[in-house]
Specification:
The complex is a heterodimer of chains A (313) and B (219). Chain A is built from ten helices and four strands. Chain A is of the alpha+beta class. Chain B has a domain of 65 residues. The structure holds adenosine-5'-diphosphate (ADP) and magnesium ion (MG).
Chain lengths: 313, 219
Amino acid sequence: MTVEDQAMEQAAPAEARGPAPIVPSDSIAGTALLAVIAIMTFLAALTLGAVVLVRASAAEWQSQIAREVTIQVRPAEGRDTEAEVRKAAGLALAAPGVTDVRPYTRAESARLLEPWLGTGLALEELPVPRLIVVKTGADAPDLAALRQQLAREVPGATLDDHRAWVGHMRAMARSAVAAGLGVLALVLAAAMLSVTFATRGAMSTNRPIVEVLHFVGAKHAFIAGEFQRHFLLLGLKGGAIGGGVAILLFFLAGALGRWLRGSAGESQATALFGSLALGPEGYAAIIGLIILVGAVTAGTSRLTVHRTLRAME
Amino acid sequence: MVRFENVGLRYGLGPEVLRDLTFRLEPHSFQFLTGPSGAGKSSLLRLLYLSLKPTRGLITLFGHDIVTLSPDAMATLRRRIGIVFQDFRLLDHLSTYDNVALPLRVLGRDEASYRAEVIELLHWVGLGEKIWSLPPVLSGGEKQRAAIARAVIARPQLLLADEPTGNVDPTLARRLLRLFLELNKSGTSVLIATHDIALMDLYDARRLVLHEGRLHVYE
Ligand SMILES: Nc1ncnc2c1ncn2[C@@H]1O[C@H](COP(=O)(O)OP(=O)(O)O)[C@@H](O)[C@H]1O
Ligand SMILES: [Mg+2]
């Protein structure tokens, strides 16, 4: 910018910086609506974050569990359980896709039962089932063959691939996600209602302006645009405040979790806060939500203006 | 450009304010609309700027039957009409400049394209010193001129003015009349509603006289 340009700019009146808004921003009950939108966005962002967390955790558990199957060998009168365990482990190791086989010893199996049965039990006298943990590769091998083989050759052995568990978990995660999305929809609907009322209020406050706009030949779309400008800004501002606070909270929870894990080893608290650490896709979802709130606010007010104008004719 | 046929108007269940109006307004014409206070002058203007629908009869504006217009078509027709309201209807939060520029903004025009035009017109109506003032600080006569400037800025084909000299002294009234005549010379049809006999005596024009709801035309 040259010196002359600067001088020109200073000489121009303040009003030269573009025309004033036709609908004055202080005529819109902005503060209340801003607060409502901020609160709604905050709640929606928390819900959205929770949905993302549940989905991520469920996927992780699933992939862990899906890579593990167990063989249970039930002792019976007149059979050598140790030999059956060894045989079953051998069959499993030979099966295609299996990467690791670990039979639990009698003592280990007993320890698994301790919480229920207490210590100091003479385990030899109890028919405690023995577990063999079989790890499989990422691509699930065909376990049907192994299952049949076990049934044929080791009478006391059954194969459990946790399919039922995975199914349950998938269903639970699905319903948690569905509930979260339901809450999200409700919050958005409530925000839309507030915007509708605020727009109607703004229109009746500014009725003289709307009339003059009509008389100078403004089409409905133009009038709607003049109101929409304010509401888009309000929506984005409120959304940024509410979503920003939620992002801050998730960030702090994640940082706290990392710090606790670093200083105090595993505990309930670290488990809790560790699971609150939102990944980048979670933050992206909240930013998307802020934009969605802005768009919904603007769209709702536009629709309301159009509807009110049609009723005014 | 305007045709009324047996037009009647009543407010709600009240008596007919206007009865059996039949007349035309021709392109490039100039006329006064007069009659005592309460005769229905403002009501007739409201029919013309599409703020009211007649209770009976037919009104044709620029060749369109006004009853069948869509909202957008109505807006398009209103852009060809300039209106000076009796109570001005300036927007108090906008400067004189922004008020006068409003019809051009509504047309979607860019500020840079109309800025010089608006300022020139404001100088022409004697508001050169008040370009950035807000209406509440303007005098009655200044508001009147701002309202007139807003009505003519988009070069309408029809200008409707409701008591445009009601708030001004005789000298300014004469100046405003000259302004309307100037506009008429450049092709705009003008209809001035007034009960100011002195004003009508200044210029010999067609007179539409409302009396007890009926219209009498004096060419
Ligand atoms: N909005 C309205 N509702 C009911 N009556 C009205 C309304 N506007 C005007 N009137 C009546 O219509 C008649 C004509 O009024 P108006 O058109 O304002 O006359 P003028 O402009 O000639 O003084 C008056 O009797 C007035 O009381
Ligand atoms: Mg009147």
